[in-house]
Amino acid sequence: MRLDIACGRLPETALELNFADAHPGLSPEQAALEADRCFYCYDAPCVEACPTDIDIPRFIKAIASDNLAGASRTILQSNILGGSCARVCPTEILCEQKCVHTAIEAHHAVRIGALQRFATDWQMQQKTHPFQRAASTGKRVAVVGAGPAGLACAHRLAMHGHDVTIFDRHDAPGGLNQYGVAAYKLADNFAQKEIDFLLEIGGITFQGNATLGENITLAGLRETYDGVFLGLGLAGVRALGLESEFAEGVLDAVDFIETLRSRNLSEVVVGRRVVVIGGGNTAVDAAVQAKRLGAEEVTLVYRRGAEHMSATEVEREWAQTNGVTVRFWASPSQLNVEDGAITSITFIRGTPDGGYDPQNAFTLAADMVLKAIGQVFVPDPVRNDQILVENGRIVVNETGRTSMPGVYAGGDCTAGEDLTVAAVRDGRNAAEALHNELMASNTERADHNG
After folding, report:
1. What would the DSSP string read from start to end of 83-152?
2. DSSP 352
3. d(C-alpha 424, C-alpha 300), whole Å
4. Counting Cβ atoms within 10 Å, is residue 111 exposed (0-12), middle (13-18) or buried (19+)?
5. What is the rounded CA–CA span in Å between residue 138 and residue 301?
6. How far are the Cα atoms of 280, 284, 290, 347, 356 from residue 374, in angstroms, in the given order?
7. Residue 383's pLDDT band (boundaries 50, 70, 90)?
8. Helix axis angle, 190-199 relative to 112-124, nearest 10°?
9. Which of 52, 68, 278, 356 has its CA 20 to 30 A from that of 324?
10. Cα-based distances in Å from 438 to 135, 158, 383, 444
11. pLDDT (tens digit, 9 = 90+) per residue, 301-318?
């Protein structure tokens, strides 16, 4: 390993501080004051903007009434991963953007996300689970993918009394929340604590190191289980398409983040001069974490303007306040390598008509380049199993059912918003539809036998 890429650039005390909770939760007094700001609107626009349809005025009113059990139950019955969603979802462009306060006080919406976190954090500190598992139905369901969609699906199916086995390629559940989100967003091992809380419902088992198309198959699952849910996520990463893309020091940002989330911070290597290519949340998370690991210079380069970034304005400002330089309208054209290792990267600037001018270029010194130009669904494990795939995603109907009977899908592997909260909604809704299908088959069988 080269000296300009190293681990332990900062002492452990500094690393602990840098990766502590980025936005600590509200105190009881702060939560009460914030809850009192809510107008408890009828037909509240914030509810319409929430992908999981949480009754926001109801749970906020419960907080104001010091009924935290009622507040948390209102949240969790719609979104069992409400704690992590409160931390990682862009509430500023979802529920909070629709808050009627924004029409009265510009940029002063009720802090819905912070209040949601306050209520769910309280619940997770209690010794009792808010939901009870129904009597066993004798039905078995396989869930492939232990990310937000798979976990939400598994929990809802278990509530209905079905026995669920979750399969995942990792050795622990969690998916995106466990391996793909910046550590300071889900600090203090929150992702694992939330999974432990979710599994308290009972009836759910986890099988790790299980990869669809390798050591498990969809056909095999269909033979063994009464139903299947696919929450496969986006396992592929787009390539730059440049020569020397696999040189030392050139990494996929998702791999960098997964390594960071899977190891002690002092064991994660980072360059002195890091360049991140991309404009989404993954790019921002990678850039900020590289800086907080001790990189001296971190530059995030995006091919278009700020208004086109999929990362929100809040995320972009967060990167800049953390010492990340953000440059727009530039596309990578050449990776410059010496002795098999990256030394710099050359960009060409964009033109007003949306093209690029090869004569107008600049070069950034870099000993580490993190690629965050998008993830893609890898259809190979389902391509030969009668699962319809169009435009790079699994095709599902309004209930989440695929073209294969008894198989449902949701989350990033299907078309829609690539948001944690949307994945939770997909998993929950598919679970309800699959439950209805399983119960209908029982009724039909009973009628036939009768």
Report:
1. HHHHHHS-GGGTTGGG-GGGGTSTT----HHHHHHHHHHHHHTSSS-S--PPPP-S-EEEEE--SHHHHH
2. T
3. 30
4. buried
5. 53
6. 8, 13, 19, 18, 20
7. confident
8. 60
9. 356
10. 15, 13, 25, 10
11. 999 999 999 999 999 999
Residues 6+ apart with CB under 8 A from 420: 81, 84, 85, 88, 89, 148, 176, 177
For the stretch 354-367, pLDDT in tens is 788 888 999 999 99
Residue 237 has pLDDT above 80, yes or no: yes
The secondary structure of residue 329, as a DSSP letter, is S
CB 224 within 8 A of CB 142: yes
pLDDT of 238 > 90? The answer is: yes
Q: Quickly state the pLDDT bin for 274 (edges 50, 70, 90).
A: very high
Instruction: Give the three-state DSSP class for 176.
Output: helix
Beta bridge partners of 409: 230
Q: Are 255 and 373 in contact (CB under 8 A)?
A: no
Q: Are 160 and 184 in contact (CB under 8 A)?
A: no
Q: What is the CB neighbour count within 10 angstroms for residue 161?
A: 17
Closest CA to 424 of 40, 50, 5, 12: 50
Pairing of the two strands 324-327 and 389-390 = unpaired
The reported pLDDT for the residue numbered 127 is: 85
In 10 A of CB 364, how many CB atoms? 20
**What number of other Cβ atoms are within 10 A of residue 339's Cβ?**
8
Q: Considering all CA atoms of the chain, what is the largest pairwise distance in Å, rounded to the nearest integer?
A: 80
Residues in the chain: 450
Q: Which two tokens stand for residue 40?
A: 């408890």
**pLDDT (average), residues 149-178:** 97
Whole-number pLDDT of residue 448: 53
Percent of the chain scoring above 90 in pLDDT: 90
- pLDDT for residue 444: 60
Interhelix angle 112-124/56-64, nearest 10 degrees:
70
Cα 240 from Cα 375, distance rounded (Å)? 12
Instruction: Give the residue among 249, 323, 326 at the shortest CA–CA distance from 283.
Output: 326
CA–CA dist 72, 77 (Å, integer): 8
